[in-house]
Write a structure and sequence with these properties.
The protein is about 35% helix and about 15% strand. The chain is of the alpha+beta class. It has a six-stranded mixed beta sheet, with helices on both faces. The protein has a three-stranded antiparallel beta sheet with strand order 7-8-11. It is globular. The mean pLDDT is about 95.
């Protein structure tokens, strides 16, 4: 792994939070992700399932975590199952986790090779009544590929039909959404790496540079700072491309006078950051561009103040909508009649700002968290309002990552990444 070792006490704490909410005499199973094929012998780079990583720190394929807090013997209460390494594997693929190294990473003392899983599981099933399966219930999830987890669930239901079934996801949605201090430090590192990539860009961009050259500058800076790369597919959208919310072609020439929307961020140790900034290709905003830019910035700043314990996401979004409406009136994009005649189900401001303002962030860019429950301290949210004006050839979105604080103002993890229009102009022209 490129990232520095993570203190195993984080994973020990995470497991304790999960097992504290399990039913009596229950077992929970977590599988690693597959390595997905492309064609011939080509594969996609391995990306670990975030849940097994969150609970164990194991960042390796063909791994299984078993938790059984009521097991008859202490050494059965936490178990890892790993692909057995060998000299052949070490030569062709590199070293895999040994049992000793797996303990150092996870804090789990009982480590078996994967070929022993079915035998050990059978014994655990004879002592348990319920199994927790780890289905993906994220509100944005669309899964068309059969995962390793899904194959296990099919196999297990056929093998042990008399056991009751429970879901891991509701527990994980709540505990993963509230970050430990170690996690906040990892997310901060991802944000700091993102800052380095962004500052590199400010001295690189000029008329006729291409969007993909900008993408290349980011990935260069990210990887040289121990990131695996992008936390999500990067959006480098110049001119009217910024009005396509998920534009990922990144293949156009950046023209003088245009703006570039940069929705690009680094991961670090599987933790995400999520940044959006706007920069002028020529190093200077026009008066109109700056007016819209500053309106979006004001909305972002006011929205950030509302990220406090007890806030409900739906009410928060409603209040942000009122602030955005005021700004759109000031810009002449809406008039009073538009607001008076608006459809409450799709307010007038949605013509120019059609997406949500914030989402949970952490191990996943759109991280676990239940939006119908109040915000809590140490949750991390994005704040990303935007105004999109296809008729004027540009769209603007600004985004920071913010920690909800128990007392005091929310803490901006991207506080050091330039965002004021004047500062951006100064750096680009220095």
């Amino acid at each position: 792994m490129k990232y520095h070792p993570i203190d195993r006490n984080l994973f020990i704490k995470n497991r304790a939070k999960f097992t504290a909410q399990m039913k009596p005499k229950s077992v929970a199973i977590f599988n690693s992700n597959d390595i997905y094929p492309v064609s011939a012998d080509s594969t996609l780079p391995f990306a670990q399932h975030r849940d097994i990583f969150y609970l164990s720190g194991v960042d390796q394929e063909e791994s299984i975590l078993l938790l059984f807090p009521d097991a008859p013997y202490e050494n059965q209460r936490e178990m890892l199952f790993l692909k057995e390494t060998s000299e052949h594997i070490a030569i062709w693929e590199g070293e895999k986790l040994t049992k000793d190294r797996a303990f150092e990473v996870s804090g789990i003392k009982t480590v078996h090779w994967l070929q022993d899983f079915e035998k050990v599981l059978f014994e655990m099933m004879t002592h348990s009544d319920t199994i927790y399966i780890n289905t993906n219930e994220h509100y944005r999830a669309t899964v068309e590929t059969e995962t390793r987890e899904a194959r296990f669930v099919k196999w297990w239901k056929d093998k042990y039909p008399a056991h009751a079934v429970a879901k891991s996801n509701p527990i994980l949605q709540r505990i993963r959404s509230v970050k430990e201090s170690e996690e906040l430090n990892l997310i901060q590192t991802a944000c700091d790496i993102t800052e380095k990539g962004y500052r590199r860009l400010l001295s690189f961009v000029k008329p006729n540079v291409t969007e993909y050259e900008i993408e290349a500058e980011f990935i260069h800076e990210f990887i040289r700072n121990r990131s695996k790369g992008f936390a999500y597919t990067p959006i480098i959208a110049s001119g009217n491309n910024a009005n396509v919310l998920h534009y990922i072609e990144n293949n156009q020439v950046c023209k003088a006078g245009d703006l570039i929307l940069l929705d690009v961020a680094a991961e670090y140790a599987n933790y995400s950051s999520d940044m959006t900034r706007m920069i002028p290709v020529s190093g200077k905003f026009t008066d109109r561009q700056k007016a819209v830019y500053n309106a979006v910035l004001r909305v972002k700043n006011e929205a950030t103040k509302m990220l406090t314990p007890g806030t409900l996401w739906k009410e928060y979004q409603f209040e942000v909508g009122k602030i955005m409406t005021s700004e759109l009136l000031g810009l002449g994009l809406l008039d009073k009649a538009d607001v008076q005649n608006e459809n409450p189900e799709w307010p007038a401001y949605k013509k120019y700002f059609m997406h949500g303002t914030s989402h949970h962030m952490g191990l996943d860019t759109h991280d676990y968290g239940i939006l119908t429950e109040p915000m809590k301290a140490n949750m991390v949210f994005t704040v990303e309002p935007g105004i999109y004006i296809p008729a004027e050839g540009f769209g603007i979105r600004l985004e920071d990552n913010v920690v909800v604080q128990e007392n005091g103002e929310p803490f901006n993890l991207m506080r050091n990444i330039p965002i004021e229009a004047d500062e951006i102009e100064t750096i680009m022209n220095s």
